[in-house]
Amino acid sequence: MHFNIHNKQTMKKSLLFILFFTASLCLMSQSGNVIFQESFDSDILSGWSMTDDGAANWSLGTSNNAGGLPNELQLAWTPVFEGITRVVYMTPINFAGIESATLSFKHDVYVYEDCATIGFATSSDNGSTWNTAWSKTYYESGEYIVEDTFSSVDMGKDNVMLCLYFEGTTYNINFWYFDDISIISYNQVDANLIGINNYEYAIFGENEISFTLQNTGSNNIETFTASYTIDGETVTETFNTNIPTMESESFIFETKHSMELGSHQLEVEVTSVNGISDENQSNNHAEKDIIAVIGITQKIPMIEHFSSSSCGPCVEVNAIMEEFTNDNVGKFTYVKYPLNFPGTGDPYYTSEAGVRKSFYGVNGVPKIFFDGIFDISYAIEQEELEAKLETPAIANIRGSFDMDGNTINITADFMSYIDMNNMKAFISVNEKTTTENVSSNGETEFHHIMMKMLDNAEGNDLNITAGEYKRFEFSYDMSSTHVEDINDLEVALWLQDIESKEIINSRFAYEYTGHVYPVQNMTVEEDGSNNLVISWEVPQNENASGYNIYVNNELVAENISELSYQHPLSEAGFYVVEVVALYDDKSSVGVVKTIDAELNISGDTDVSINIYPNPAKNLVKLSVVSGQQSAVRIYNVLGMIVDEIEMNSNEIEINVSEYKSGIYFINVETSNGNIIKKMIVE
What we know:
6-stranded antiparallel β-sheet, mainly beta, flat, single chain, 5-stranded antiparallel β-sheet
């Protein structure tokens, strides 16, 4: 038996993919010659004819499942039909003078079993012979956007009929929806700058500039010139490549740009293609606002899943999400809200679930919100998760909980690398597996079920300054909730922008353990010898097993036991220092301090040293241009002295053949002050 159980959001196709190509299709439709276009906006299926067997399966629907606007063409599974069925556009199309074109359309299908094929075909003999111009067999349900080459033996002719066809048995599908069909011919040379690949946030200092280019012309793109402009500076470079028609490729400028803290507007423009001007320059420009921050951290995506044990369609989504989460342990935070509908609803429904339902405007289940902004009714796909994991996060979260009888005690620290306002911190106590809220949909167990939320799901106001952290503590007697097993709890923590609903970052708290307190009373200062001296006191609980030290977001010392660290400076400038307390396999949020460092070089400003070759493998020659030298000390990136040499002449040789590959700092003491140079050993 077939059921029409899905709507516009019930498909598995990646939303990131859809957003990416929707933007490119909009740009393309402005730059090409439109040969044919159909959006099915009329109340009747005007201009189309269903003349073959299976004609009864085609109709015009008022839905928008394919992703366009209502209405859309639909193919029903009933009456069951096997073979080829066509819907024909009866007005001939003029392909005269056109050798190639591009087909684009949106479609949405639910495949039950086996597979089914769709395609577009042309006929220049009034429908007696149909020649396939594009076809594809689909094995999985999905909401898809097609953008591909359209080509048949009828290209170049002036009296061509067009049809959309289905081949197979309709019993294998539920419904198949189609919308926004277009056939467009393009210029010979046309580069479409799809967008800038840099993320919204970047670490201050040098950053690569990246962009993605699509070939929307008929000729391959073999070379092009592009430029980027930021902070009043423009960099122009030429790229050699080979991009076929309708293919895309990402590129990185060789010249990096150094960003100071704050906001920057980045512009990228393609100025020539294959040595000539682009025939369509309307799609050669892209802009993006980027904020340079003092640090970034790992993004842990947040999944909020609205469901009910009385919901039939929820069963399949729950099963897929359980498999998905089992395959991605440690890569997400998850809360499932049991709702009080349909039917008599889920017996584990609470008022907190109702608050979150109202916050997101949920009026049906299943419904999933991914980081607060992606609204889907099916299930999250792997590529969506991977894309989120690659996105830098600007807030870090660490928390822990333990039990005192039935009372849960939670401590959570929320830390930010940027000034934040109008944020809220959320804490949810979940039970990992429940079996007693069984209702009417046939499921016998459920996962990540929310039992209690801090402040009745309204969240806790959080305004925070870059580099600071705020702590929240929460205790609750869980015997007053639906908890089945007090030893099967988890605590979800997340930070959310209330206006945009975007979740900045999230994390599960460490389970049944004491809190991972950060270090105390951290200081950073210069010692007069071109070193940063970083010191701190043990955390509140005095249980840390070691400490990680980061300078400008790079790990420079790992799991050290000392309470101070000396970092050699190679140049003056702005430095961000972060210390993270370690608890065996756990870690705290970082404590961050910044400093404007000035190298201690006095007297003759002409004093300098030369190091060559650099990088080096065996011997390095070090010479002092002027000044009275006395000693040379060589440090590794951890600040440890690896060599100390007395310098009795203006030039010496240093044997680095026994050094490990990496970066070193050479500190030369002279009568006019210290000079530090970076040395690389290969």
